[in-house]
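protien #1 (seq + structre)
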Amino acid sequence: MLSAIRSFAKSWVAAVLIGLLIVSFAIFGINDVFRGTVGDQVIKAGSRVITSVDFRREYDDYRKRLEQQSGQQITPELASQNGLDRQVLNGLATREAFAEMLSKMGIRPSDKLLVAEIQKIPAFFDPISGRFDRRTFEQRLGENGLTPEDFDRILRDQMAAQHWGAGAGEGLRAPRAYGALAAIYGLESRDIAYFNVTPANVTAVAPPTDAQLTQFMQQNAAQLTRPEMRVLTIARFTPQAAAAGPVDQAELQKLYDFRKDTLSQPETRTVVQIPAKDAATAQQIQARLARGEAPAAVAKSVGVDAITYDNRPRTAIADRRVAETAFRLQPGQVAQAQGELGLAVVKVLSVTPGRAVTLEEARPMLEAELRKTAAAQKVYEQTQAYEEAHQSGADLAAAAQKAGVPVMTVGPVVQQGVDAQGRPVPGLTPAILDQAFSLPAGGESELVDAGGGEYFAVRVERIVPPAMPPLAEIRADLVRVWTAQETARRMEARANELAERIRKGEALTAVAASAGVSASQITDLSRQTAGQNQALSRELMGRAFNAKPGEVFVSRGREFAFSVGQVGAVRMQPGPTAAMLAEQSRSELASTIFREIADAAQNAARDKLKVRVDVNRARSAIGMEPLETKGQAEKKK
């Protein structure tokens, strides 16, 4: 059964299903989203309940995944504006409803199957034994905010979904007619005639007046308004800046003496140890080993197992007294040892001498360690001096000066850490910017731990509110954009005028000639080869493949132009290629069909169970303001 599940997990059905149920939080219709629930229930789907704590964990995990994918931080404001809370809320509601429905249908993995699957997950293996370890299992779950019960439920849901997917997707194939249509779509080729209307084909645009530019600015106020900017003073306490000066040689020697044994390579030995129940047995074992008999055979003859330490240091031998005896012998010697765990006979098979690391060999590593320690100590002293001065009433700059830390003033900068020209400002980190844009004008942060032994404090010197730039400052750019837009409008009008003449019966080549441009003819253009033609824009190709034979269309051309085109003959390539493509397309179409089946099944489960969702409780769990209900909005109005 396990092998069948693993095989299924690698199939396209599992990929689609798990993508739908576990990873993706697609936006579904919000059913009963304002209906209240009893107790701490953000989502109630049959017997399954998502609490505020559960929702916050799921929301944080999803937000972190989005941040990793996008490479930028998602602030609470940005998340609220884009409805991230409702995406997660409705994705969870649909997921829980589907899992509850599967359980009611009797699709539940057995405990034995679940345990076997958990014990094969490498993240839960002990690094030494290479086997499943309960302590490692619980530690890994705790690091992710999960309990064993939470993980048990999640894994059960996944396995149940895999079982359902195996049944629903087994043998699912798209009809051959679907594959044939896909082949026709992919292998279809067309003849296209077109010509371009460029700025040279329309009257030149007169320079705009100030009134026109002012109106243009007002129409595009959202794009032209500069965001809030801030001037910041920052004090950074970093180990890199604190690390300086020569290393104290006395401290270096002291550290070397302390670490010499651990840095050096110890003597190792290959030793065989055979336990003995009494002195007579020990004498017999010793004699036989001294004659060169095989240790395994000797041990077996007295009813015990030989213990072999292969090229191991003294500390690897479990019994300390046995280790002392073994490390006094020469290679080939045999001796009895009265160990802490009982009498034993040991024989030394080989000895690998140890090697002491000299001070010069260890110097680079030890000096780096001392510098790191000294830098950390200096940063600590600087932060203490800063805190003392700051609490005594000194502002950021004065407190930093007393601590011996330089300050820098930057800005104006926006919250993304760039200046007015969009250039990154050196020295700004996301943590510094978060602090800086949470303070009022003149506000100073406390000393903030930035991680890695670094600290910082920031002061907001001045806030530049969002504002439209003056016309004089951006006149040149406005003139350029306004002129381009006006020219494009005239080009599009001219292209539509010429296209209308073709629709009324004139030949495309004759219309192009009358406009002073030359027409181009392309034959056998297919969807596979369209991208290789650098003369055609993507919009032109899209219009060409969506148009009927003989249809005339206008689209944007490459660079700064509008294209007037007409579709000629449309052909289909018959034969083996079409048959092969038709068959290949069936698997992709089957994937699409299964995705639609899964969507329908999830929505049906949600409707049948009448899932209740408390959006305001969910928003409160993640620190967002509750939404107004219709009654509250009417009352306020």
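ok now protien #2
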Amino acid sequence: MKSEKIELLAPAKNLPCGLAAVNHGADAVYIGAPKFGARSAAGNSLEDIEQLARYAHRFGARVYAAVNTILYDSELDDAQQLIWQLYNAGTDALIVQDMGILQMDLPPIALHASTQTDNRTVEKLRVLEQVGFSQAVLARELSLAEIREISAQTSLNLESFVHGALCVSYSGQCYISEALGRRSANRGECAQYCRLPYDLLDGEGKILQQNKHLLSLKDLNRSAYLEQLLEAGVRSFKIEGRLKEVDYVKNVTAFYRQKLDEILEQDGGRYRKSSSGKTTFFFEPAPEKSFSRGFTDYFLEGRNADITSFDTPKSVGEELGELLFAGKNFYEIKTQQTLHNGDGLCFVAADGNFEGFRVNRVEGKRVFPFEMQQIPIGTKLYRNYDIEFDRQLKRNTSERKIAVELLFEDIENGFRLTATDEDRVCVSHEILHEKVVANNKTQALENLRKQLSKWGTTIFSVSELKVEQSEAFFIPSSLLSELRTGLVEKLEEARVERFRYCAPGNQARNHEAVFPQGELSYLGNVSNRLAEEFYRKHGVTKIAPAFELQAATGEPLMFTRHCLKYSLSACPKYSDKEIDITFPLSLRYKNRVLNLEFDCACCEMRVREKN
């Protein structure tokens, strides 16, 4: 039985983040292109992308470039030129949202459907596969059952988010930032209105919740569900975070590398990682010590109450324990954790605000802050900055090595060293040199083995060394070093070349494929003539312009499975409590009011701007 390739896909804000992702075990890295990426603050130069691709390819890891905004007509030529430049820089796939790209003259590069294409139905994903996509990022809101159903009816490679920040709206279907601030999420400029504090009002203007982050969700963590996701059909496990720094990438990538490796080691060979090399870590990964708003698996097993982060959109970190006692200049904390001078602790204050303080000094379970605050006894405390863990991450934290078998031989006029790596890439390097029989043959052989086993800071490690000589020769250590160095250069180049030769191109396209909808509203995000041409070619007869081109007055600005009716225990499907609430509900932020609608048949909440 042939093993299926499994991919751990990590984010890269920039080149250092991308290199860290590869070094900490990523099978693939996704990075923002110089422009047209859905994180406008995370663009990268072609030179950096080329450097990252060359580095990643030595390990058989891939680099995906995000070109996933919608495009305007004036940008189409620039986008096509950029795509060719990305291809020539070594990019392995494009992550795209705008279907106009499929009407362009494209290089032979794989296409991945961004989560912004709203990938949550079998019918949609079937068409994406038919028109040329090889991989699709599933909507975060899907359950295991829904993923299973999609997997059973398409051969698309399915990519699923497993960690990181959650958009409260279906991706690609959120227009609130554009409507209220003229910053389009579909153009990479989201202003994060979902993280703001709101008052929740009932139909009579009564305040039900005050100054709470009612659209803010916890962060995703599906590390406990990796096996179930595999069985459901997921083949690419994606970590969110193209705005995160190197330490986050190191910690979270290492954590999921360990988790996936444990599964792969126990599955009897059914799955294998899609890149090469064994990664060793010099720290213990702990995702709760990196930025998080608390964790949720979201809707993976259906609706649950533990998805929201109403108190704060900021990092909560790890739960420490509770406050036992407050002295004149210290707090005593009930905790199992070790505290350090310089840690950052936080808590939800009595007024509902999220507060924090820096630890100046620690004595056992007593912490002495720079400044005391009034914190009630019994308050739950969190640590969102662990200074010792941060120091660990600043050091060398990993080593990724590709195993090689070496064969040393003497040839007619010198010596030859041959390497065969774990992917069966084989190269040889020869040096012409006078062959002198050693006086001390045992010592000569020991030195030979010692010198040829020194691969130091290279990406290779020796798993086996065979020596086949007609005699035991005296060979200077400098010559063995030269032989080894030349072999490393050849092997690295051969690995990059092999990867280039084996890289998949774009998929065959079925021009007769019919799109599942005959009409597209503003939700289709059609913002240019090529996108319109694509949809008409695939059976769509009526196409409205994108919201960014012509604001759809009065239409919903956000579609979400997060439901405030459910949060208030007022959903008849999930609660039998009698709640005295007058509908409709609305959200208020300063002078802005947003009306809430509840589509119970679809189990969705919709948000509109009040006229």
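The CA atoms of residues 182 and 548 lie 9 Å apart.
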